[in-house]
Every structure is written in structure tokens, then in C-alpha cells.
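Dear colleagues,

As part of the handover before I leave the project, I'm documenting each prediction I ran so the next person doesn't have to rerun anything. This entry is a single chain, and its sequence is reproduced below.
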Amino acid sequence: MLKNFVRLIYLPLFLIGGNALALHIVGNDLSRAWLFALVGGFIFLAFCLERLVPYDTAFNIDQGDTLRDWSHFLVNESMAVIGILSVPFTATLLAIPSVWPVGWALWQQLLLAILIADIGITLAHFASHRFAFLWRLHAVHHSVKRMYGFNGLMKHPLHQLIETLAGTTPLLLLGVPQDVLSLFVVAVLLQLLLQHSNVAYFTGPLKYILAVNVVHRFHHIGNAKEGDVNFGLFTNLTDRMLGTVFFDPNRKIGSADIGIEDRPDYPKEYLKQLVEPFRS
């Protein structure tokens, strides 16, 4: 009974509940430290529930990658915080009149930001599988040999910067407020936890619209031809325009299926992963 309840509630808990709490914090002008607490709480919750209702128990076993994944998380999210703090300065440099709908409800502004940014992030992700240098940066993320929520946050910092710029530049040009951008960063973190989650949560027909874990696992298949699908971060809408949506409900994806097929020796250590894209 409990496991079925977790499967049913997991998606709305992260997708709606987490973002609703963030909206409450920002909308009521509470300390932004609560946003850090919120993210930390959902990371802890993801770890716990992945052990209660796993898609694959093998994905919960440490493969000498936990410290590395924490290193990626701390560096990358520090960059995100710096980016948010620099918004007023960036807006001054751009000196473009704002056309952002500041009169809308905060949740409507967040939804608009997600839909706009999702297009840019998806296209940058798609390009990262087409251009050699971008792929070398992105390969860090694809080197994982298990799928669990926290390694959704594992990316080369330069590749995260590229994807972030692709998603947020249109928002900055439109004059997005700093509060909305803060909410957007929290939404991205929650979505990455959902997208890479090892929880066998219920998605129903939403998997045909949202970029959830049962869809995204196909993107991590090590064979380049099979894994060249499902690039979206939040939705599958841009993938549908690109013709890159794929889902097979009968396919079970395990550790043997994911990774980089022609690079089984890809380094696991954090510092080695930082320099690997620049090696000949």
C-alpha cells in the first residue's frame, strides 16, 4: 500500500509540491535561505524514496561515484547562485526595455519562463550530440553507469553554462525579474531529480508530454544511435518538432545499457572529468 502511494504521489510531489513551496517562499518574501533548505530536503527525500520504491535496485548501489556527484552538484549550483545574483548587473548591461509580464501571477511567470527556456535548453542539448566539442563536454554527464536522481545534477560546469545561457538568454532579453529566475533554478533542480530518478513512479499519459524518467532513460542508452532521442528537460514538445521522441513501455533499461558504449574507460574522478574534454 505504501509503495503504491509513493508511486502515485512522487511526480506531483516534486513537480507541483516542490515548486509550490518555492513560490510560497518567494511570493511571501521569505529568506532565500529557505530555497536552499527546500532543495536539500527534496534531494534527501529522493534518496530515501529511491530505496523504498526503486526502478532498479542496482542503481542505488554506490559505484565509487557519490563523492564525484556531490562535487559536481556543489560546483554547478554555486555557479547557478552566482548567475542569479548577477541578474541586476546583467540587466544594466543589456539596457533593453523589459517586456516581461510582471503583472501576471508569480506561478504564471514561472510557467512561462519554463516553457521558453525549455526550448533553448533542448536545442543546446540536441546540438551537444551533433558537434564534437559540445559532445566532449556533455559526455561527462553520459558517462554515468546508473540512473538515480542526484546524478541529474552531474554535468561539466562549462556544459551547464552553455545550456544555462541557451535557456536563460531569451528570459534576460525579455526582462525576467530576479525572483522568477530564482524560482526557475529551483524548478530545474527539481526536474533533474525527477528526470533521472530511480523511483518507479506513476506517470500515466503525462510521459507523452513531460520529460520524466521513463522517457529520459532511453536518452542514456550507451549506443549512440539508440540514445539519440528525448533531449527535452521539462517537456517533450521540442523533441516532437525535432522528431526525436521515443518510448518503449516494454524495454527495461539497466546498468549494462547506459553509459558511453565506445568509452567504457571514461574517467570517474571529478577532476579527471573536468579535463577529459580537452584531451586529444
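The two ends are 53 Å apart (CA to CA). The CA atoms of residues 42 and 51 lie 14 Å apart.

All the best with the project,
I.
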